[in-house]
Design brief:
Length: about 280
């Protein structure tokens, strides 16, 4: 009998509070698992086979259910955060007992109502738990998408030198470049993006930004808002380091330079003394 898996077991014994199941008719007490009465289908008899899922109840006892949860052992699935407590979060996975997500298994803190991509694993205490780590290994690199396609993807990990990890259609491996602003996004958010490249191994490079000539208007407007927030005088220009530009504006140096060039040509700003001033 395997914890966290759907499996077919035999009805070994009937009791007032349900039936006991086992892998074979001669299974002893240590090789049986209870299927509670409310889960037992009508007209089930000794020797009949039932497909069940095995997990542990609130008292840490192995128990069976005929309900298939939203995620199985060593699989990934999208689950909703029902509650966040002192030691972690509890997720709705379709069973009476919620699934525990420890803080140490979060790539970023979650909030009630978030829909996040998790994997199911067995912890050191032999209990089923959720994790937002290691999702990368469960995603396929054989997507049907090509350069220029518009896709939807779910954020599942932040903060890497390479960029932000995204699961396109909750199943295909993709990445946003590190220079794109994701500061307003949280774990589990679904974004719309364009496929900018397909790597040799099939993984997707995607971007939320429009093509440069379309994006420039949005970026120029954003830069003007930032200048206003500095009381009309931005204390750096397009000659600043990429790190400073991204930290202050969320734009890559190239995008910032294009936006500043647009504003300068439209005579909305002046550039001198290492500063950008609003006209």
């Amino acid at each position: 009998m395997k914890l966290g898996c759907m499996q077919t077991l035999q009805v070994i014994k009937r009791v007032d509070f349900g039936v006991y199941l086992g892998e074979k008719s001669g299974a002893d007490a240590t090789e049986r698992v209870l299927l509670p009465k409310k889960q037992v289908p009508e007209n089930v008899g000794i020797g009949d086979e039932l497909e069940v899922f095995l997990y542990k109840d609130s008292k840490d006892r192995l128990i069976a259910t005929t309900t298939r949860p939203m995620v199985l052992l060593d699989e990934i699935g999208v689950l909703t955060v029902k509650e966040v407590g002192k030691i972690g979060a509890f997720l709705d996975w379709g069973l009476e007992k919620d699934l525990f997500l420890p803080y140490k298994e979060m790539t970023r803190k979650v909030q009630e109502g978030d829909e996040i991509l998790v994997r199911l694993y067995i912890d050191k205490s032999q209990r089923l738990c959720a994790s937002t780590k290691g999702i990368y290994h469960y995603l396929s690199s054989q997507s049907p998408y090509q350069i220029g396609d518009e896709v939807e993807g779910r954020i599942y990990e932040f903060g890497h030198d390479f960029g932000t990890f995204v699961a396109v259609d909750d199943r295909y491996s993709a990445m946003l470049p590190k220079h794109e602003d994701v500061s307003y996004l949280k774990l589990g958010d679904v974004i719309t993006a364009e496929v900018m490249g397909v790597k040799e191994d099939g993984k997707l490079d995607i971007s939320m930004r429009k093509k440069a000539y379309l994006q420039m208007d949005d970026d120029a407007g954003k830069v003007m808002e930032i200048i206003d927030s500095y009381a009309g005088v931005l204390p750096f220009t397009e000659k600043a380091t990429p790190e400073i530009i991204f930290r202050e504006t969320g734009l890559s140096k190239a995008a910032f330079k294009r936006a500043v060039g647009r504003l300068y040509k439209e005579r909305k700003i002046t550039i001198n003394d290492g500063k950008i001033r609003k006209v």
